[in-house]
Records
---
Amino acid sequence: MKNKKKTDKLLKNIIALLVAAAFTLVAASGLLDAWDNTVSDVLYQRRQATDGEILVLGIDRKALEELGPMPWPRSVMADVISILNSAEEKPSVIAIDVLYIGESADSDSDAYLAAAAENGRNVVTASAASFGSDIVVSDSSFLVDKRSVQAYDRPYEALENVTATGHINTMADADGVIRHALLYVDVPESGRVQSFSRTIYEKYCEAENLEPAPSPTTKDGFFYIPYTGKSGAYYDYISVADICDGSIPPDFFAGKIVLIGPYAPGLQDEYRTSIDHAVPIYGVEIQANLVDAFRRGFFPQEASQNLQLVALFIISFFMLLFFYDRKILQALAGEVLVCLLALLICHVLYMKGGVVLHVLWIPLFVSVLFVVSVALNYIGAQRERRMVENTFGHYVDPAVMKQLLEQGTSALELGGKIYDIAVLFVDIRGFTTMSETLDPPTVVEIINSYLTLTTQCIMKNHGTLDKFVGDCTMAFWNAPVPQEDSVYLACCAAMDMVEGSKALGEELQRRFGRSVSFGIGVNWGPAVVGNIGAPHRMDYTAIGDTVNTAARLEANAPGGTILISRAVADMLGDRAKVTSLGDSIKLKGKAEGYEILTLDELVR
């Protein structure tokens, strides 16, 4: 038994290890990244109120209608810069999210734009790198650099010399959603170029005499974006056209960070972001969010992938062991608790510690374990139910069967337990002589009628039918589940058999010219009850002196008589009328003075 339990425990641990390893491999493979990113976006990205220090000046539909389609003459942007800087207090930064690459055909416009930017000394312009794959030779080995800068588009020289420049490269994740920003680009022969947003922020700190917060820690230059606002968060419906026609006074922008960029659908500068998958936002708004992130100094860092995989493995392993053979309500409570706790930890670590975890992993895999475990436990319970029913269904009362089903396969384990039981033996008197004078089919019919009667009497009184041995029937009460007043039930069955044998005897006399009567013995005492035998061939039975004594009482009982022990008579008390035979009948294995009684009548 101990070895079996050890084997079962070892098997459960091995299965749990294999399942946890499989879950970990699935998570590590990236198959869940799209779903995990979506769930993580919902938990981590929360819209916050902006403080009004960052404003988006849109190259919107109104501007396109009034100033013409893009690209505009560079003099238009020069006018906008000049107007914005004409106030007594000019903007802290004017950032232009438009590429002005190379000199145009209108040299006067080029010079005018450069002069306007130089005059304001607060302008940030955009540049862009083009990436591709390249082979890098290192220590006699070849590596493929998939993010090699193939080209770098910068503002024309006159404008670049009088402005601060940052790259506007934006790279989406595999699902097309912008979750990360590129802090810098290493340009061959030019060195490291900071991002457009970081350059704006540092320009803002310079104008406001502030110490810039440290740059976020990055992996290959990428860092997680904690968005502040969705589409429209920084846009107050102010168009570039409103500046050009004087609708908005320039002092409205005093001390602000002004970002000028495309804000119309046809300009192909819209992106899906982690703060809102449904409604895209414009590139200039992404830049505004990044500037706000630099100002807040909140840069969440994604936790180590390996550590998260280890945590997933451990939790999956122990949760599978927890769910194994667990009742459904307990399993459900555990599943809900672990999932809620995992989500809470993700939220708290993000808000308080700036740590980004995989939100989906633990709730998903724990829920999968819960569903599968419930299904397997149900299948196992049904299998156990069938095993118990197959073992006991033909010889156990339905009320007893119900309790056995609650015990499950523990009732089927090899071995026994000591119970105090009431044991009944019943046998046909004169059967051997009768069988010698009748043909075999008739004998079989008579024995089946007898066994049917005894079985019905046992089941009617909630007994356990142990076995048929030839023309003898054995039954017991108070095992495998405790029963109230088990001795009384056994004696009721005995009385029913005596009464039933009268009608059966009359029918057999009429049909076959032969009659039968029963000799019955009932005893009460301790016995070993359980599955006795070998693992592949066992019988559920009772053994011990109590059983042997009941069999000897039956063997000495004349037809139509019920012999009981003093223990049975004492249990019945005044509910029965008995006649003591003293020790007139000698039972094998019993000392002198063993009292035997006949059960004459039973109060019902």
---
Amino acid sequence: MTTSNPFFEPSDLPYALPPFTLIRNEHFRPAFTRGMADQLAEVAAIGGCPDPATFENTVEALERSGAVLDRVRRVFFNKVAADTDDEIQALEVEITPQLAAHDDRLLLDAALFGRLDALHARRERLGLDGEQLRLLERHHTVRVRAGARLGPEQQRRLRELNAEIAARCTEFGQNLRAATADAALVLDRAEQLAGLPADRIAAAAEHAQALGHPGKFVLSLKNFTCQTELAALEDAALRERLLTASLGRGIDSNGPVAVGLARLRAERAALLGYPSHAAWEVADGTAGTTDAVEELLRRLVAPAVANAEREGTALAEAAGVAEVSAADWPYYAERVRKERFDLDADALRPYLELTAVLQDGVFHAAELVYGITFTRRPDLMAYHPDAQVYEVHDADGGPLGLYIGDFHARASKRGGAWMESLVPQSRLLGQRPVVVNNLNVAKPPAGEPVLLTWSEVTTLFHEFGHALHGLFSDVRYPLLSGTQVPRDFVEFPSQVNEMWVDRPEVLAHYARHHLTGEPLPDELPARLREAETFGAGFRMVEHQAAAVLDWAWHSLSEGEVPAADAAEAFEAAALERYGLAPAAIPPRYRTGYFAHVFNGGYAAGYYGYRWAEVLDADTVRWFRENGRTVRESGEIFRRELLSRGGSVDPLAAFRAVVGRDPEIGPLLDRHGLTG
């Protein structure tokens, strides 16, 4: 078994790319078993070392532990998200509580914590450099927050809670995958899809064929509420069906799961000495306190709602009705954009072909700003035929890492868009980064171009910002690598990268008609920016509503959690309490399908998108107004922030770039909320 399991030894492929051609489902369970056993033995050896604790024999030794487990864990959960099957889902249910228990054994190991605690007490006298000191503090903080100072009985209950939370999160994700599949609309005739461009109708037919509905058309749901097809479908009844399907998925199966998770997290927070999960979460973020988050959330509600009401009035006038419904809002918003700004979103798509956007847009912007280049590596195989591997070289031609792009929707893939790290950068371990970007773009028939919406282009630039955070990491220690920063900071670099979407020298390079090669007409970018401003109220309200919903669930104390069947009532009351209950603008995510917080790492952290946008908008202004060239500014941003991962205080990294603390003004200006 030692020689036959590809996880047992480091990969000999370039950049230690996992050997996907050798990996089979049957390799995962034995690799998890051995990986956990190996790491427990390594940690026992560290804790039982007879020599006095030093940074090298304790902290650095801990960073070297768990190599097999790290390799299998990263590949397995990437597969869970991007290419699952029944066998993998069954193993996920089995292995997730085991991993939670394993992590508890590491975090609550008394001998190891005793050594870390002793080092932490005299940390200023150890002669450590800045990164070493940061690493010691993080290992100590993580364990204190995880309950290392609790008594035996409290730790026993804590382990039970962590295992149950892990199991419930897995249950939520698997329920959501099934509910989303069940909620797809299967249509008999192409005429029902009137309004959609021909290529998207063809993609719906192709999707139906893949799902076992030959001759029909399938509209599958994306992760968020407001499905993109709502802006184009001419059939009002079909729009209503599509939104109803989107809003209703998962509430029956996942409502009780969400309530259960809220209760478990509240009990765990109380056990750890916090009034709520939200208080526990933000204490380790850049926000610092629940009051700071509340202030931001409430400060943005009134101007966002007022802006959205103005937009709604314009839509009602265009529709000739007193009020526009939620199902019709995107449709009439698109009509207004066409009339007011002479902008047809579907007319943009022929200029936004996927390969051109990626290579001539996203990659080109990275070269302009940071000097890096990308080379397709067809000789290196990823985990699925749709996923393509690129080698990344630095400005001096030296090797930087690998980038994997996996952009198409499929039945084996969860919805949404995200970044994964298959190999984290670490000088200690001699590792260069391997990162993955996932989108869910409908795959057209063979030979047809993949044309993106403007929103999908923006999403690709956003996710690539996460990829850059991983690729540019230049730290010694794995715990501090890449995107391992506070949750309310991690979206900051990705949101900054969105600024290059319509930068003239970037847009002109990729936005060309896929048939004629003609560039996007000169006047369109300005009209596009105006149209984006028009929709800012809607986007802000739906996003704020989701952030508030997450915050409400996780601000509960133990005794405040509602009954298992009361998820919908709790949700409605929370939105009403914050003044975010307009029927025409539902939350971007409702409880039943809010995977970020009930199946991901964003519990009490979804506010972080808006918190990070304060930093993002301020940084974009710095890029535009600091008097340096784009390349010079890019080098500063990379050196002082992107490369540092978690090795420095995040806000100190921000100040090293911009030269001061962040200001909210640029964010308000961006969304037309000033005043």
---
Amino acid sequence: MARHGGQILAAALAAQGVERVFSVPGESFLAALDGLYDSGIPNVVCRQEGGAAMMAEAHAKLTGKPGVLFVTRGPGASNASAGLHVAMQDSTPMVAFVGQIARGHRDREAFQEVNYRAFFGPLVKWVAEVDQTERLPEYIARAFHVATSGRPGPVVLALPEDMLSGQSDVADLAPTAPAVPRADADQIEALGRMIAAAERPLVVLGGSDWSAEAAAAVQRFAEAWQVPVAASFRRQGHMDNRSPAYAGDLAVGMNPKLGERLAAADLLVVLGARLGDIATRGYELIDPAAPGVRIAHVAPDACEIGKVFRADLGIVARAADVAAQLAALDHAPRDPAWCRAARADYEAWQQPKETPGQVKLEEVVGWLSANLSEDAILTNGAGNYAAWLHRYFRFKRYGTQLAPTSGSMGYGFPASVAASLARPGTCVVCLAGDGCFQMTLNEMSTAVQHGATPIVVVANNGRYGTIRMHQENHYPGRVSGTDLANPDFAALARAYGGHGEVVERTGDFPEAFRRARDSGRAAVIELKMDTDALSTNQSLSATRAAALARLGG
């Protein structure tokens, strides 16, 4: 029976087990919208393609299944590229469908024409354009396989308008059987011997393709073997932070003691992480040209092993599977001092350092950490405000942290909307800066329309805080381009149909949060921050004074 391309596409998505898609509608893929009409697959209509892409990426992080995105050609595809960049750097499986001009109009610079192979080529794992209606099942099956194989990532399929509306009687295709790389027993035993022989080993967790079972396995292994474990940037949910073996996160503004420990280690067991510039503080703590440490690297793609740092042992396997195999090994006796010292450094770093003002973010985050349920989901984008979350919140379960390792501003709020839709009834909290929130706050309309109920805690200090910090460090007192004129965020939330409150003292936050949660609506709690509050370690005035002294000003 002949179907148009949109119906064929929708059937292919159903065959892949797609539960939800995110989109901003466009005339270039009307047939796909028509196909979704009868598919039973919910279509979350968003307000801007960047927000839609970030929702799809967050959905994939949370569910482990590829996030699916539909955007129109030209401007829509350009807007969506922000979320696709997040997916690529965060190793998140995504399949993005992009509308395209009719095939007969190519190379005329037709309305919104873009060469997607050239545009998206460096940004995603694979990009293709489907020229024949009857080949849609083939391309879609391949797209999902590529997105989830090896190191996961985003795939883009461009859909010419006339191809999509064309008819074909092609049969549906079942998904490709996954090809899962596995470590053999000899490799695991070799890894065990390396760990047993090391005096100062450190495990570094990261990457995607993780699970709650893997988090528990790493914890059992690390506690039995007395090996400290560090999470790479924004992967703190990969292990229960309450474990005596957990040593903190290798992040922007990391605990200096943890940085010293990374540099002093005689063995790094890198489970899934890429061990990039953030984890090594700009490659200063470990030099790729002369690492000075033995490295065992576990990654699902052979191309990632030795890509930056040479490895003494490379294992092509999913880090989650290797975690389970390590947990099954008999542990070797070890002096616990190294592991205990790492934990003591983490505990000391957790002690709140007071910041200026009546609203103290360290206390707000501490309250959230102590009072939220263990399954509560925390999201954030980029900005200095996130350092308080990373430093003072203890993640207890896998799947409770959604944050961009790519450092993308605006990510936290769309991610919180996607999380609330994927886990209805679960408490979802987005911590945002005033600049970060304003990049995607129009998705409040999406949240209200689709019944998402995240609580956004906005740290409002009237500036782009991270850039202001760097500005004061390099050009103290010469403020340019970092101040913000902000709306009344609480009133804006109410205008969208959500709940909104303003908090001007730390002591008022707990009750404001409870009211926001009890409202049953998307909510915003605006924190009026002191203008001198800049980072977890230093105020704006102290940062400027130190820079002036250093520069002789």
